[in-house]
Amino acid sequence: MAKALPLMIQGTSSDAGKSVLATAFCRIFAQDGYKTAPFKSQNMALNSYVTLDGKEIGRAQGVQAEAAGVIATTDMNPILIKPTRDAESQIVVNGEPYANMKALAYRSDFFEEGLRVIREAYGRLAAAYERIVIEGAGSPAEVNLNDRELVNMRVARLVNAPVILVADIERGGVFASLVGTLQLLEPQDRERVIGVIINRFRGDLSLLQPGLDWFEQYTGKPVLGVVPFIPDLWIDAEDSLILHRYQGQKETAREIDVAVIRYPRISNFTDADPFFVEPDCTVRYVTRPEELGQPDLILLPGSKNTLEDLLFLRETGLEREILSLHAAGRSFLVGLCGGYQMLGRTVSDPDGVESPRQSVAGMGLMPMTTTLERRKTTVLCSGEASFAGRRIRLEGYEIHMGRSVFADGVSPFIRLADRADGFCDPERRVLGTYVHGLFHNDEFRWLLLDELRARKGLAPLGERPSFVALRERGFDLLADCVRRHVRLDLIEERMRAFQENGVGR
Is-catalytic flag, 485? Predict the structure, then answer.
């Protein structure tokens, strides 16, 4: 292996804050003048990122690359696991679909191939970068899986990386989770842990200090930092576990009510994030018909199993409520990717790409039929859309395994460089497109919201935030916070010791 300095971030559990802290270190090292790359050997997520060459990686590594100021490549996440149905996932290797596999088959049959892919991808990064920030997954203390895991301590040993263990204090039991994780590690792996970071702290640090002192004395591991909770940090999440925070938000109702349908296999849920920063929007994730109410905007997001999620809407009664609101002209309905496919007349899956069902009737709101195909479209895209009498430049990305065909004479919503995409009815009651990131385009989002305000007899909002600018500022805000609250000097010292002295070999 080349001598790029690695640092690995592992957690006591999923959603402990590994991705965000890895993003922070990517930004910090880049600010300090080091050419830095993120790396996650194996990622399980339905929130994807498309690279410039049209390949697919986990969204977190794409965002971390942006924080580091470098172009994302598939080497930064060589294996991506995308659950399609219970106990089965699509395996994406080096950015392209490899196979659909059951969990047991993946573990038994893919291990050696996966290890080879990981070793080669990391080797290419190590030859091209000075620092590599490695993110683990879940917990390194999954004793039932550790003999064939491909993402935590095996990777740390492979590249001789020091490990920082992160725990989320919001979950409660932070010292028990840290101590328990350390005790379940093999002795050589426990030695690899250079310290811990406690994440999302709120309150008086003096009240926590006795626990910090006890922990250091009991384990012999330093507390490298206590990172406070950072509100309004708009950095893309990739794990749908984060959605419980959105659902748990309580706030005063605002002029525009946005309902996002959360079906079981929701993907690319961050498409809705820009609405959270709008001063006149309330955003709700909805799973049952009684939660729907009468929103101004209903968003059907992406899905990793369009047919099964469409049937979920039908069986729960959500489809009936959505169609009723649409027919009454009460709610503007937008479908993205899988949600877009649901709005047509039929969705067919003759090759069993996502589901054993051959075909399911759609919601019938667009004169279109969709056929799922084995070939996956992954591409960055840009074009010009027509909406509310305006022509607007749009940028986004596509990730889908389907082809949608419209009846003759239908005008598309957006004209891309090489084709047309999407549909918006003349009355602007329903809109659909394969383009993810639609609402991240500030001008389009602002126009849409002012259109919804006009329908309610409200004046346009004069000034709105730029989500693009807020997201970029978030990288610096995060890096500044970690600089203030984490012992970067000790981390730097330990990183160099591991690489120069062969510590942990």
Answer: no
